[in-house]
């Protein structure tokens, strides 16, 4: 084992110990305390992460131009930092008591009847989602509701010890995961079992994607979801959790995306994307 591998292994083990400490530490707090802590950590991160702030400001300038003032843009950026901190702390907070995730969801999610109706087709479901709100908590809550098993498509973490913790989080309520490099056959098999696949569509893609209009700019996105839905007939249903100021979330399924076939397969897939 060379020196670099030894250093990397030590680093990974230290990171694991830090995360385990936070899991133990946060477990003793209330949801309200977790919210307060996230506001402190998020504000601190906002103040220190100059490079990230700059990137976020550039992105908001692209998205809104002069429609929002610089003050409004800075507020959006700061709130984003706080939400990232909140999502992280909440995810660690529920690991020892997973039913806490359901406590963070306000009322009954809307659109559950649509999901149940779509499952009657026996083709499974593609859930279209993004890094918004707290997608980890949303997934755990979905698993406990027992409507259909949900598989997330993930990228494994560089730290195998943290990857193990993340896997536990994502499967703690009966859900599953597929790694990006796993055979497509596993996804097809899950759909045949009338299960669901959650796909994050707000990620850049290095290959196999198409450029779409996004806030007036061209942005690359994957076409795998559209292609699979086209070939399998599996419905696509948006699935999001909207954050509230109380640190809770409102979950919404649907409406189902209505996609038409014109007979030109490749053009249809691009149009669907």
TrEMBL record:
<dbReference type="GO" id="GO:0016746">
    <property type="term" value="F:acyltransferase activity"/>
</dbReference>
<dbReference type="GO" id="GO:0005886">
    <property type="term" value="C:plasma membrane"/>
</dbReference>
<keyword id="KW-0012">Acyltransferase</keyword>
<keyword id="KW-0472">Membrane</keyword>
<dbReference type="GO" id="GO:0008610">
    <property type="term" value="P:lipid biosynthetic process"/>
</dbReference>
<protein>
    <recommendedName>
        <fullName>Lipid A biosynthesis acyltransferase</fullName>
    </recommendedName>
</protein>
<keyword id="KW-0997">Cell inner membrane</keyword>
<keyword id="KW-0808">Transferase</keyword>
<dbReference type="Pfam" id="PF03279">
    <property type="entry name" value="Lip_A_acyltrans"/>
</dbReference>
<keyword id="KW-1003">Cell membrane</keyword>
<dbReference type="InterPro" id="IPR004960">
    <property type="entry name" value="LipA_acyltrans"/>
</dbReference>
<dbReference type="GO" id="GO:1901137">
    <property type="term" value="P:carbohydrate derivative biosynthetic process"/>
</dbReference>
């Amino acid at each position: 084992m060379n020196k670099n591998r030894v250093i990397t292994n030590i680093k990974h083990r230290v990171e694991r110990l830090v995360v385990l400490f936070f899991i133990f530490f946060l477990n003793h707090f209330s949801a309200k305390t977790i919210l307060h802590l996230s506001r402190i950590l998020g504000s601190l991160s906002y103040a220190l992460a100059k490079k990230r702030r700059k990137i976020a400001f550039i992105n908001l300038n692209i998205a809104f131009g002069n429609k929002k003032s610089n003050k409004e843009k800075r507020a959006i950026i700061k709130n984003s930092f706080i939400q990232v901190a909140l999502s992280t702390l909440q995810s660690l907070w529920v690991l020892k008591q997973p039913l806490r995730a359901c406590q963070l969801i306000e009322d009954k999610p809307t659109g559950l009847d649509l999901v149940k109706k779509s499952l009657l087709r026996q083709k499974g479901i593609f859930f279209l989602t993004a890094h918004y709100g707290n997608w980890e908590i949303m997934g755990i809550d979905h698993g406990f509701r027992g409507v259909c098993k949900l598989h997330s498509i993930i990228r494994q973490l560089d730290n195998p010890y943290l990857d193990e913790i993340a896997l536990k989080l994502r499967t703690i309520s009966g859900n599953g995961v597929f790694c990006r490099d796993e055979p497509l056959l596993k996804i097809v098999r899950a759909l045949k079992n009338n299960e669901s696949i959650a796909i994050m569509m707000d990620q850049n893609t290095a290959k196999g994607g198409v450029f779409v209009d996004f806030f007036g700019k061209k942005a690359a996105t994957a076409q795998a979801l559209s292609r699979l839905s086209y070939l399998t007939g599996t419905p696509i249903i948006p699935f999001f959790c909207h954050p509230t100021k109380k640190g809770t979330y409102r979950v919404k399924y649907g409406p189902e995306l209505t996609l038409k076939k014109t007979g030109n397969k490749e053009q249809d897939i691009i149009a669907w994307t």
